[in-house]
C-alpha cells in the first residue's frame, strides 16, 4: 500500500468524523449560528507559531487532536450536557482540517504534518516525511 493510499484513507476517515459531528449536532437541535461562529476558533492555536515552530506545533497539536473534543464530549455525557455542542463543533473542526489534508504538525516546520507535507514545504520534499 502506497503512502498516497494511506493518506487517502486517513482523509476519508476524517470526512466521516466531520459528517458524524455534523449529524449529531443537527440531531441535537443546536443553533447553526453558534456552530459557524465557533468552527474556526481552534485555529487561534496557530498563534503559538509566534513563539517558534516547536511551541507552534505543540499548541496546534494540543487543539487539533481528537483527544480534547472526545474528553469534552465524555464530560458532557457524564455531568456537563451543555458542553456537548462545543465538543461536536470542536470535533467537526478536527475532521474538517484532516479531510482537507491539514495534519498534526511536526516541530521542524509548519508544513510538515503527519498527513504529509503541505503548502510551500511540499515543493522541497523532506525524505523522512514524504
Structural summary, described in words:
The chain has 130 residues and is mostly helical. The protein has five helices and two strands, in the order H-H-H-H-H-E-E. The protein has helices at 3-28, 32-38, 53-64, 67-78, 84-99; strands spanning 112-113, 116-117. Helix 1 (3-28) runs antiparallel to helix 5 and helix 4 runs antiparallel to helix 5.
Helices and strands, with pairings:
Blueprint: H1 3-28, H2 32-38, H3 53-64, H4 67-78, H5 84-99, E1 112-113, E2 116-117
Antiparallel strand pairs: 1-2
Helix pairs in contact: 1-5, 4-5
Key words describing this protein structure:
single chain, 130 residues, mainly alpha, two-stranded antiparallel ribbon, 3% strand
Report the end-to-end length measured between terminal Cα atoms: 14 Å
Instruction: State mean pLDDT (0 to 100 scale).
Output: 91
Tally the beta strands: 2
| H-E order | HHHHHEE
Content of β-strand: under 5%
Biggest beta sheet summary: 2 strands, antiparallel
| Shape descriptor | globular
The Rg value, from CA coordinates, equals 16 Å
The number of distinct helices, counting runs of at least 4 residues, comes to 5
Oligomer type: single chain
Strand order of the largest sheet: 1-2
- Structural category: mainly alpha
Q: Give the % helix.
A: 55-70%
Low-confidence stretches: none
